[in-house]
Each structure stands twice: as C-alpha cells, then as structure tokens.
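Pilot study result, target chain (218 residues):
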Amino acid sequence: MGPNILATGPKDARTTIILAHGAGGAMDTKWMEDICQALSRQNVQVLRFEFGYMAARRTTGKRSPPPRANGLLDEYRQVISENANHRRLVIGGKSMGGRVASMIADDLYQQGVISGLLCLGYPFHPTGKPENLRTAHLATLRTPTLICQGTRDPFGSKDEVASYGLAASITMNWLDDGDHDFKPRKAVSGKTLSENIEAAAQRISSWAAELNDVRKDG
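Predicted structure:
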C-alpha cells in the first residue's frame, strides 16, 4: 500500500475501492469519512488518496485550483499501480475524482487491472451550464460502472441525465431528493443525508458483488 493512502474497512474484503476526492474537498472531509464508514459496514475496503495539488494545501495552506481533469490522469494511474494487488478492484471518486477515474477506466478494465468504476456525484456538466456536457466518453464506456447521483444534483439531475444516451455498462443509482452530496430536503423527502449515504453504500456493495475478480487467489 502506498504511503499516502487512508484505508477504511476490512483488509480481507472481497472488494476494494480506490477513491479520489472532489475538486475542493480533501480525502478526509466528513463526507468522505461518512461514505467510507458506510462502505466499511458493508464489508467493503476503501483506499483514499489525494492528488498532488490537494496534498500541497496541507503544507502551503494555499488553496490553488485543481488542474484540468486531463492533467490528473497519470497521478491516478500511479496510485493504482502502487495499490492494485486486490482480488476485486474498483476505481472511482467523488465528483471530479470520479470523472478522472472514468477517463482511464476502459484501458485498465481491458488490461484486467480493475473490475469496475464507481462515481459518487458525477459532474455531467458545470453547475449552471447544462450545455457543456462531460459525457462523450460515457457513451462508449465498456467498464461496468455505477453512478450514485442525487435526483436534484445541479451537476446533472435525474431529468437531465435521462436524455444523455449513456453506455449500457453504466448503472444509475438515484438518491431521493439528493443534491451533489446526496443531501435531501427532509421536509420534501422525509429522509436524511445519513440515510441516503447508507442507501448508496448498500447499493455499491450489492453492485460490486456481481463484478468479476481481477485476482483469483484472494
């Protein structure tokens, strides 16, 4: 395991998820901790890491903006190469982290390195700019993929995503009245953020259980 990895969940879990953070939140935010603990309760191991620009904030204190997604691909590939020794390996991330993972997933899947892709709140378009879609590669994606998305996510709501023509390999898991962080309006849905996070973790676990192993020897 790499030196800058934050591990949650059982080491002997059948499924391990390498999870990247979003554009503005570090790997140890409360939201990341909550989803990882929920996955741990589902017997899933999660390995969190930070891209270089986010890790630098811890030493410099400066909130520099993230590079473009294309500029983070090699960093993610390096983390996978250092942490790929798992029976069933899924890559993914929160928002931007999931987008970066989606851009390298097919090559790794075809090489037999990963079993699937997980996106937590995929940024289908910038907020307020629904015409600027980030979906071209999702139309031909071959990797088994689960996208957990709030139904009113400003980066891609349920009504918007219905028109995108995503690949058949992609399964959508809609979280009732959730925003980009899955948070619902309790007065509208009667649910809480914790309930939506728990529901997402349960769905991730059941989806991952159907994926193929990349290692047969545990």
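One observation from the pilot: The mean pLDDT is 94. A full batch analysis is planned for the follow-on phase.
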